[in-house]
Amino acid sequence: MAQSARRAGYTVYAVDHFCDQDLSWYTEDRVRFDDLDELHDRVVEMCRRHPVDMLVATSGAEAVGASVPLCGTRPESVGRFLDKLEIQRFFEGVGVPVPPIAEESGYPVMIKPRRGAGGWRNAIVRSEEDLRRWKDSWPDVPYITQQVVDGTPASVSCIADGARARAIAVNEQLLRDEGEGAYGFSGSITPFRHPLAGKMVAWAERIAAASGCIGSVGIDFMVGEETWAIEINPRFQATLDTVEMALGKSVFQMHVDACRDRRLPDPVPASIQFSARRILFAEREMELNVDLSPLAPRVADIPWPGTRFEEGNAVVSVYGWGRSRDEALRKLDENMAIVRRYMERSSWSSCTGRRRASKT
User: Fold this and answer.
1) Domain C-terminal end among 112, 127, 147
2) Collapsing DSSP states into helix, strand and coil, what is residue 14?
3) What pLDDT, in 10s, does the model give residues 298-325?
4) Are 189 and 274 in contact (CB under 8 A)?
5) Which site from 11, 35, 87, 162 is most exposed, i.e. has the minimal number of CB atoms within 10 Å?
6) Is residue 138 part of a domain?
């Protein structure tokens, strides 16, 4: 988001958990926080250091308050969309298909924590033993269980003004597909050409308009023989970079226009290219001892040399682009190979390209 804002001509100050190397390229100042409990104080600190005229929140910070005007959905309105049970009730209320709530004994079921982003704790539970293991891993975490539905994970990126919404992109979502975080977000491909894309767009605009959210709003779907609404994200989504690469337009500026002037973007023309992102994860505990910044723009979210990672931690994002989905994925594979060769210079590293945990 900082990159998008900088490209749109804004001076950017960031409060961030990671403070990756390339964040410093797009921001005038940065401050890091460790726990979400520290976030409000860090925002206040940044606002004292600089003449800030708007606050824009990303995942994990949707409900943060500050004295500067918020450019986005108000905390008092966003709360219901941070709870998956409330999202379920909202979808049912606006009449869009959503996987029904399931009895725990009606295996298999999809289990999800009621709060949290990125899908990394979601799991299909097939037995009492599976359920017990999940509860042991996440004790005292409230959850919901839904009937399992088949299909391809997808999303629609919208811009909303509190009463209306316009879809700007349909995205294919990539998941890890293995291990404890099998349903964790691992990347995206934009655009997603699918026979039911038009139906997803219609439902997404209906959902985003009814939500009362303002600015960037994302609706997640599972699309197969049927299409199911899965989640609403009342903030910038992790698909932001592939959307901008595919459209050649500033989503950040669309967000600001909707928040400040209640102005929706014009109908977005066809994508100028396909773009793909996949996230590289640490396969085991590792230390990165090489500088990946010379590989930009093939990569982003670039860690500082000497950064240590636990198994499963996100390391770096890798991109591909082209005139077709296949061409973009070939380019992505080429760039993944380049990154891996580059990282072989590191004295202690081991990574996989199948998953990246969502950032705060």
Assistant:
1) 147
2) strand
3) 999 999 999 999 988 899 999 999 999 9
4) yes
5) 35
6) yes
Which amino acid does the sequence have at 13?
Y
- Cis preceding linkage at 51, omega within 30: no
Tokens in use for 127? 């037995």
Total number of domains in the chain: 3
Whole-prediction pTM value?
0.92
Residues 56 and 102 in one domain: no
Report phi then psi at 199, rounded to 5: -65, -40
What's the CATH number where 323 sits? 3.90.1170
| 84-94 helix and 197-211 helix, angle to the nearest 10 degrees | 110
End-to-end CA distance of the chain, in Å? 12
Contacts of 222 (CB under 8 A, 6+ apart): 99, 149, 150, 151, 152, 153, 154, 228, 230
Dihedral class, residue 301 (left if φ above 0, else alpha if ψ from -120 to 50, else beta):
left
Residue pair 142/157 in contact (Cβ under 8 Å)? The answer is no
Question: What is the DSSP secondary structure assignment for residue 348, as one 8-state letter?
Answer: B
| CA angle, residues 211, 215, 220, in degrees to nearest 5 | 60
User: Is residue 281 a part of any domain in this protein?
Assistant: yes
CB 200 within 8 A of CB 156: yes
Stretch (H or E) spanning 207: helix 197-211
Contacts by residues 63-70 (CB-CB < 8 Å, ≥ 24 positions apart): 64/39, 64/40, 65/40, 66/40
Amino acid identity at 230 = I
Both 104 and 58 in a single domain? Answer: no
pLDDT tens column, 230-267: 999 999 999 999 999 999 999 999 999 999 999 999 99
